[in-house]
Automatic annotation (TrEMBL):
Protein name, entry field: 5HT6R protein
Disordered: region residues: 115-134
Name of the encoding gene: Htr6_0
Gene Ontology terms: cellular component: plasma membrane
Entry-linked PANTHER family: ADRENERGIC RECEPTOR-RELATED G-PROTEIN COUPLED RECEPTOR, IP13425P-RELATED
Places the protein is found: Cell membrane
Source organism of this protein record: Centropus unirufus
GO biological process, one term: positive regulation of MAPK cascade
UniProtKB keywords: Cell membrane, Disulfide bond, G-protein coupled receptor, Membrane, Receptor, Transducer, Transmembrane, Transmembrane helix
Origin superkingdom: Eukaryota
SUPFAM superfamilies from the UniProt entry: Family A G protein-coupled receptor-like
Transmembrane segments: 27-48, 68-87
One Pfam family of this chain: 7tm_1
GO terms of molecular function: G protein-coupled serotonin receptor activity
Statement: the UniProt record of this protein carries the keyword DNA damage: no
Length: 134
């Protein structure tokens, strides 16, 4: 016996598939960014740590080579602020909102009061306005 396939798909099926596809693309992009960051971290710092252990065991690592590996790790730290905006649109948008050099024309800069209120999770209350407090 063969089981017949459904003749028609539910109306919400294509919408839920589109919703799942959108978030799977975001998850894939986030995984890619994390993979790149971790890969660069290991490429930059793993030789330093291996050399550090080797130096402790045999003492045969030249000081200049050790310095080069240390600076390779430091260069990795300078690459993170470059990698995040390249691969994460949300990060780029957030930095553009708060850094004066990256703002788009026509966007108002948030004030220090609005930033502190947003960060403290305390918005204006019905009985108390910001003018009354200041």
């Amino acid at each position: 016996l063969q089981v017949p396939h459904a003749l028609s798909e539910p109306t919400g099926s294509s919408e839920s598939r589109r919703f799942a596809n959108k978030y799977s693309k975001k998850a894939l992009k986030a995984s890619l960014t994390l993979g790149i960051l971790l890969g660069m971290f290991f490429v930059a710092w793993l030789p330093f740590f291996i050399t550090n252990v080797t130096q402790a065991v045999c003492g045969c690592v030249p000081a200049g080579f050790f310095d080069v590996l240390t600076w390779l790790g430091y260069c990795n730290s300078t690459m993170n602020p470059i990698i995040y905006p390249l691969f994460m649109r949300d990060f780029k948008r957030a930095m553009g909102k708060y850094l004066p050099c990256c703002q788009r024309s026509g966007e108002p800069r948030p004030s220090a009061i609005s930033l502190s209120m947003r960060n403290s999770n305390s918005g204006p209350r019905a009985a108390m306005s910001l003018k009354n407090v200041l």
